[in-house]
User: What shape does this take?
Amino acid sequence: MVFWTSSDMVKVILAGVLGKMGRTVSSRAAETEGVQIVAGVDIQEDPDYSPGFPIYPSFSDVKESADVVIDFSSPALLGSLLHFCRERGLGAVIAATGYGDADRASIHAASQEIPVFFSANLSVGVNLLRYLAREAARILGTSSDIEIVERHHNQKVDAPSGTALALADAVQEELPGSMEVVYARHERHEKRAPNEIGIHSVRGGSIVGDHDVMFIRPDEEVVLTHRAYSKKIFADGALQAAVFLAKQAPGMYDMGNLIEDRDLLGTD
Assistant: This one.
């Protein structure tokens, strides 16, 4: 793969390198021209894993210089990640999920000093799904019951997925102030309200990530679907985001900004 056509090499520090996504990013980076992982950070240990770069237990131990940090760790490390990036003037691609309102506020505050790429899902296809969900809500929203179903592997910790929440946000952007997100309908002993967005989570097996947004109308149903068949799509998205972010000034960026850079996506 080639994401970068200049003579510059984008150097990356990878947080959460020993997790499933971290290992996938490491593997994909080794096959990608123009981007190099120079160090990893992980609180776990695996002496049998040799990715070709040093792995440190904390950000404070990292000695290598870099342009960007890709973070696939956990919200627990957010504070040390942002401190490290601010201190060194590095961009941050934040790809972990499960952040609360206080975490998001910290991320936005950091973007005043450094470029931050923050997206619930790094797949180009999922972000197209968000766009389509927004358009469907604009046309069908007031006359439809809207339900979102997400399915992931049985090792995923957070529920609902960050992507499901982002899809609900996309719908609400077109129907501001009128929709209520409902997560646990089994606790409600009443008819479905017309202004609900139901979100349902399924965990099982090795499902990489499936998302359906349903607009259910009398006598018909419109379903928007995305299926992820490999974690590689998220790893490639993270690497593309790192290359993109290396060129940016401080501020908040997401997949919408990346999609506009057609050279990075390999499209005409």
Remarks:
- The longest strand covers residues 209-217.
